[in-house]
Design goal:
Layout (H helix, E strand, L loop, with lengths): L33 H8 L3 H13 L4 E6 L2 E5 L1 H5 L1
Antiparallel strand pairs: 1-2
Helix pairs in contact: 1-2
Length: 81
């Protein structure tokens, strides 16, 4: 079955990578895993992992450690910049 756009509810403009930091909820503990990110944005973990990969590649967040097999991320360095 085909998929088609029915309506656009809102839009956002991102002019620089640091603008994307707004996608990360401010109430996340530092550091956080993709599990915690997924829970805070109410999305599946696989999507949070893709989000973290892209944001890390753009310099919006960084890996600051590990907890078992989970990478831990931080956005605090972007807030200082």
């Amino acid at each position: 079955m085909d998929h088609c756009l029915i309506e656009i509810l809102s839009h956002q403009t991102f002019k620089k990578p640091s603008d994307l930091a707004a996608l990360i909820p401010a109430d996340l503990p530092e550091p956080y895993s993709t599990k915690e990110l997924a829970e805070s944005i109410d999305q599946p973990r696989w999507l949070a992992q893709k989000m973290a990969y892209c944001l890390r590649s753009m310099g919006v967040l960084e890996i600051v450690g590990k907890n078992g097999n989970s990478l831990l991320y931080s956005t605090s360095s972007m807030n200082k910049a």
